[in-house]
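Render this sequence as a predicted structure.
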Amino acid sequence: MSLSRRHFLKASGTGLALPWLDSLGGFAHAADAAGPQRLLMIALPLGIYRDGIVPSQSGANYELPEYLKAIGGFRDRFTVISGLDHPGVNGGHSAEPRIFSGVPSNKKNFR
């Protein structure tokens, strides 16, 4: 069986990259995890009473706004981030799905 130089280089490159694949090394690190990590992102493009969900103070000791009081028992496990802006995301309601990815809003990439 003959092995071309091109085939050898492709196979070598793939073999060298294997240690960096998360799917192959996940079990070694699974025991270190303290529990599942979750991310909840909410966009309300049609509006919400901002004072009801965004704290008026910053820092760890902020007073919980009205809508967050229901989950106040988990206060040490969540972070409220507000005021984010993606300058490349525009287009009104059709741009809503792009707010978390920052993909520019134009007809070429709209799906």
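Summary. The first helix runs from residue 5 to 17. The two ends are 47 Å apart (CA to CA).
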